[in-house]
Protein: Voltage-dependent anion-selective channel
Organism: Timema monikensis
Amino acid sequence: MWPPNWLMGPPSYPDLGKNARDVFGKGYHFGLLKLDLKTKTKSNVEFSSGGVSNQDSGKVFGSLETKYRVKEYGKRSDFSLGAMSGTAPDLSIAILIMSDFTRYKPCHVSKAIIAKWNNILDQQVKYLKKLEDGKGTDLRQNQLRNIYSGQLGFLQKNTNRKETTSSMYEREGLTFSEKWNTDNTLATEIAIQDQIAQGLKLSFDTTFAPQTGSKTGRIKSAFQNDSVALNCDIDLNLSGPIVQASAVLGYNGWLAGYQSKFDSQRSKITQNNVALGYSTGDFILHTNVNDGQEFGGSIYQRVSPKLETGIQLAWTAGSNDTRFGIGAKYDLDKDAAVRAKVNNASQIGLGYQQKLREGITLTLSALIDGKNFNQGGHKIGVALELEA
């Protein structure tokens, strides 16, 4: 995955262990028929819609979402793409993003270009071998080595911020989102990022169900830099606000997080979660304890550029029920991937994903009950993603 997660500062608390969860969750749609559509207009409005049919219940669920980013509030990058004389453009872009990825995101960049970035480092190694400028070559080789090892200090010192600016990257600014689903629920969100303070995102979202008159509101705040990720959400409940806060600290690959929820109506802390982890990019270890009752852990490892593996373990105090699973994803080529997972309940999940053409992806999945193989009860799933 480009860029590596270890270059983006510590993740928010809900994202701890996400790499391993994605190995077990992404690409599987057991018992579902799913269709997702995404498009973007020239006026910078993003549309996404989707439909899901549950084969067990027969229920069909659909949604439509629009998102608009106000360009006037998106500040351009002050990093230079040509700061390092003689460096290949792709490598300059790579260093630009990785040296301060929390501030900038690609904008108006196609999936094809993003996919190309996944192979930038390999391409640049070949590029460096062809250079014959001695000292300069050694410098760029050092840059590549530091990219791999995650030493951001080196990159930041060797990136000149005073030269030509990039028009390809901009910070998140002001965004408006609206969503409707077939349960007849309307949702809106207003978010502003990197405007009040660098790394700070503030948002306000509401939901309204016209049929029942139910309303909800939530104020969310998040702050992230190279060493800390802070989140605070306030649920504007009429009976009394509910506050959920979390913090994750990162140092030399080590991660420590805490999450808590406070119910102001009862004046009581209703959630106490702690987590510890270690990340080297290709290897991520995560452990957590929820309310002193639920214990969990996961291991994620990228064995090779094509193979990802994951292990999950969970146990609840006072119960003999231990949950254990192993999963893997293997990229056959740039357009196809296979997935497999198995747990201690003898449930076997299989998946196949194929990019049929640019913007069209088909995913097939199946869940096999190993304990009751001859009795049936197995599930299949089909998902089609369209993007233009």
Q: What stands out?
A: The chain has a mean pLDDT of 80. Residues 89-169 form one domain. The chain has two domains: 5-73+171-387, 89-169. Residues 260 and 359 are 41 Å apart (CA to CA).
